Amino acid sequence: MTVSNQEISQLFENLGVLLEIKGDSIFKIRAYQRAARTINDLSFPLSTAVDEGMDLKQIPGIGKAISDKIREMHTTGRVSAYDKLLEELPQGVLSLVDIPGIGPKTALLIGKELGISTIEGVEQSIGDGRLAALPGMGQKAAAGILRHIQAISTKDQRTPIGRALPLAEEIASALREKCPGIVELFPAGSLRRWEETIGDIDLVGAASCPEEAAQALVSLPVVKEVLVHGGKKTSVVVEPGIQVDLRFGETASFGAMLQYFTGSQQHNIRLRDYANRMGLSLNEYGITSRDTGTGGTGVLEEFPTEEAFYARLGLPYITPELRTGVWELDAALEDRLPNLVQSSDLKGDLHLHSEWSDGNDPIEKMVEAAIAQGYDYMALTDHSAGLGIANGLSPERLEKQIAVLRSMQAGCPIAILCGSEVDIRSDGSLDYSNEMLAQLDVVVASVHSAMGQDSATMTQRIIKAMGHPSVTIIGHLSTRLLGQRPPTDFDLEAVLHAARETGTALEINASPERLDLKDTHAYRARELGVPLVINTDSHDHTHLDKKRYGVAVARRAWCQPQDILNTFTREQFLEFIRTPKPDRIKVFDAAHTSLPSGGRP
Length: 601
Known about the structure:
Beta Polymerase, domain 2; Beta Polymerase, domain 3; 17 strands; 4 domains; alpha/beta; 25 helices
């Protein structure tokens, strides 16, 4: 039976909650919670790993008991220990724990005393006074829970990074302008790790007068509510409904503080365990020796930078994007950390739109924007005719555009490649004829319709498009829009293997509302040797700067420059696209150096 990583992760998350409700060992509860987070961050499917006979205990945080349960779920689709816990506890108790303000013990009390198993039931019990009458509850606590329920119905609990990062940068810039005494100020938490969505915005800093900086934050026009106001920590809610936490520490220990609040929690747990084995203790202030044989017991060592903090542990600097708590510590200890791709490595953008279809700017302005990025090549890829809402180009209009682009090449410092974002029809065929497609330098084939197809149909649809001799890249593979549209259902492993076999590149779409491929999918693609491309899918000349979001996804996927096709020189890239498929993979492999790629052992 095939079970997804997400299903396995959720089961262990639920197991931890059920054990907490039951009052079981905190160590067992934390073990399940850590396993859930680790499994959610894995790039490869655990079902495949089980089928291939992998020892799951090699995965950090997976011991024998958890490994056995994964195998049981893979074999039967169920875990008997989980089913037994569900039978022992009131029905629906798990859904109650999802309500902020209701902890495991309260959820158990509500289930047993009131027989309630839904959020709607809790809301009704608040209205008729039954919840407030429970032991240890009261009117104030009940009213607080009601506010949380109302907030759940109106607010997505996590914010896409494309909205959170510009806001954080705007706030940080305003604070620096108002407070010259700020010495250090960085985003921390999931934002600094470039996760695709964030909970709160965490800002960590050092300042000669932190009280002044805190006052500056609460006085910003975007602040609509002040939650905490103090010298060391200030929390506010800003206009989009996002919480911002500002913390200040000492300059001498700022590196330890930044590392601690950057996380992830799982990374910090593994780092703490590693330090404990060295006789050291870690916290947000620095490192303390616990080894009585060194004569330095209890002396706090401070670190102004993260580099110095990691060096004290005998480790190279681990960049925030890698701090998931899965493979990065092992790679650091074995000197296998990758030389991650950077924005400056990109030599071109291969997915750009103009006003000929649904873009905002003329072709000339898009070319100027690509030149301003310092690129060596670009591809204009306006939509094909199949996507009517995007003013797609008919074959006649596309031929006219090709002529315009060819005429612009003379005297242009970069290669202007003729392209199209061609719709993959529901049966896997493409919008244009083979003759029309053969005239193009770059074809980005994308799904824009019939997104509700079942997994088998969608998988074959994508693979059929990959088999077309003119298709260069598959654009935004899963079609998701963060917080707006879920991904389509398809067999990722089958698609990735087909991409490798056909010499088809896969796009990391840097548009902040897409980030598609996601990081774990890009990680798996890199493992399998699939060419990856970081494109912005720009519809405006100002959007080319958004490449940083795509680069961040690639860095979280452990990608080095040689893993990304558009880091290749102009000559290397032109050789790739001019080589018939599937021989292109040989060109990619030849340009792909033998540097270690890092990741899982």
